[in-house]
Amino acid sequence: xxxxxxxxxKNVEWEYDxxxxxxxxxxxxxxxxxxxxxxxxxxxxxxxxxxxxxVRRIRVRRKIIRQPRPEFYYV
Length: 75
Known about the structure:
Elements: E1 2-9, E2 12-21, H1 27-41, E3 44-50, E4 56-65
Antiparallel strand pairs: 1-2, 2-4, 3-4
């Protein structure tokens, strides 16, 4: 698993994860796996590439919202 992070807007980052699934998994098994990741981890599907040999390369992402640090201090 390779997890990468990118910030496009202030205080909002996307965390990406990419993984590969073998060709012998059925479409319903892949769907169940992706639904499980979406419901439990908050991931959403970014892209699916099916290569000529049948291997699926899947990329998912989830949003990370950072709370801004207050700019005032208590004295």
